[in-house]
Amino acid sequence: MSQTCQRCAASNAEAARFCRQCGAALPELRVQSLTRITMLLARWRKLSRSVTRQELRSLLGEPRRIESDSPASRDPVETWVYEYESADTPAQRVCGRVTVSSSGSHVVAWCEPDWDRLREGPA
Ligand SMILES: [Zn+2]
Question: Measuring CA to CA, which residue among 81, 98, 79, 91 is closest to residue 118?
Fold first, then answer.
């Protein structure tokens, strides 16, 4: 399991906090600045139901985790969970979820992270 840098697309170890190539904070981890939140938000806004699993991965990077639906389900889906935390208040975590069809391999629904909570730092 590895994670992909959103800035330079280098592959990094799962536990890495920063990109070994360009030094950028890796996606699941801290959101360092408003600029970065804006950049993330722009990527989330590119989601649509025609986005494939592969495109999703290159758009948002590796998810924090993937939750599978019950195997008994007729149209199985996976939920890709993206977690971001504020650099100022690391306990302040927000989650975004993207539901991907296991059979069709494309996005069926998504729920953006609560960007406002991420922006709220100590005054
Ligand atoms: Zn990088």
Answer: 91
